[in-house]
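REQUEST ID: PR-0412
SUBMITTED BY: lab tech R.K.
PRIORITY: routine
TASK: structure prediction, single protein chain
INPUT:
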Amino acid sequence: MSERGGDVCDDGGDNDGDGAVDLDDVGCVSTTDNDEANPACSDGKDNDGDGAVDLSDPGCVSTADNDEANAACNDGVDNDSDGKVDLADPGCVNTDDGSEADFACDDGKDNDGDGDVDLADPGCTSIEDTNEADFICNDGFDNDGDGQVDLDDVGCFSLTDNDETNPACSDSLDNDGDGDVDLVDLGCSSLQDNDEINAACDDGVDNDGDGSIDLADLGCSSLADTDERNAACNDGLDNDGDGKIDLADSGCVNIDDTAENDFACDDGLDNDGDGDIDLADVGCISLTDNDETNPQCSDGRDNDGDGDVDLNDLGCSAVNDNDELDPACSDGLDNDGDGNIDLADLGCVSIYDGDETNVACDDGLDNDGDAKVDLSDPGCVNIADTSESDFACNDGLDNDGDGNVDLDDLGCKSITDNDEANAACNDGLDNDGDGAIDLDDLGCNDGIPDDGDGINDIDETNPACADGIDNDGDGATDLSDAGCVSIYDRDESNPQCADGIDNDGDGQVDLADVGCSSSSDTDETDPQCSDERDNDGDGDVDLDDYGCVSVQDNDETNPACDDGIDNDGDGRVDLDDLGCSSIDDTSEADAACNDSLDNDGDGDVDLSLIHI
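STATUS: complete
OUTPUT:
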């Protein structure tokens, strides 16, 4: 007889009287389990009094489930006392939902005490939202203590922003410890910038270890440059191991070149194994050429298999030609299937011709199906003509349906004319819908010299000043509109001085504006002497300025003898200058006999000698 442990699930007895012993009993989890009683969902009892037993009860998930009670949303009880039961309650998502309580944004309560309920509260985004509290940027508080609230705070980007903290470039702190704060710091591009750290070329650090800092480093192009490293051709290193450094290396074009490697045509190597090196190789065009391979016409190979090599091949025009294939007119083939080969084919002009196909007017075919071939077809001008199709004005058809054919049709000017359609002013149609047709329509005689007045006019539309429409929306039509000069005028827009608009923003409109000389004036801008500006910078404005004669005067500049300037460079200014007779004098230049110059080249200056 074996000795058993003292635990209930290892004592060899049926402790709960269900016919199962120890681990055979569903109530036992392990041999150390000291309770053989079955879980509520496998004890054969209706533990929650809902009429369902064990796994038949919705409250049971498995036989090991020790709670037969149904979930709150499947128990037939109004658990949150809102008058709604289970799935009829908005607080229930499904029958497994353990709480019938409504979401904060759908419970009819002001949960955050801000006076707003459910979806009327800015803190609610949907009825399933469990928190009615407003977003930090919409709560009416100065959450970061900077004196600004919600969207007035630079830290807030939207009402749903939940962080009012200012970005690094607007927090009044020296975040990168360089002594500069916010926008004074070169690391800040705007108030919303959240990184105050300076670019590598403005941080006072030798970032690439070459002994130079910031703009003193050749790797920096500006203070905003984020990389202090020098380009390969300006770093003092032999990057390609050829014994040459930077610009002394032929692989460097300039100090901005990022690779020191030599080009194939300047590396001293026979890269294509033809015995020639660099520029001595026909495959090299220049020192910066990076491919030494010879073109087909100088590679010593019969690339097209016709027995001829390089320049001995008709397909080669020069040693740098990279295609050895013979042209169509010297390849021994009937390329267009007309029974003729190469120069025996009319489509070939020479042995170098690359197309053997005959043109339409010399191919022996009736290409347009009019029973006429090549030059016997009116559509062919000569054997070089590429189309046999007859012109619309020489095809025997009434192409525009007006009863006239070819040259009998006014739309045709010659047999080579390819459009039989009549001009708008000779087509018998009211093209602009104004009730007038062709020459009876004003649009067909509008005086515009380049649109073919008369039956050749291609536009029947009436001019804007004779179309019965208020084209500029000023309430006046055609000649009643100040913008119309005649019925042939195509622009109804009023001039600035007759458009009822204060075009220069000075509070005066049209003729009431001093900038308007007449209703036909196209510029309402006030002259300099009535624009309330000190245009010549002398401290005087408009008529207070000596340079202004009237309000219509458009030059406020003072005369030369009243402008405080030594205009003739003689050391005298305005009335102190002998060249000035009054402050109205427009020239300060001294008279020829008082300018200290020998103006006539006779050796005498000014009054030193008087000639009688």
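NOTES: The CA atoms of residues 593 and 606 lie 4 Å apart.
REVIEWED BY: pending
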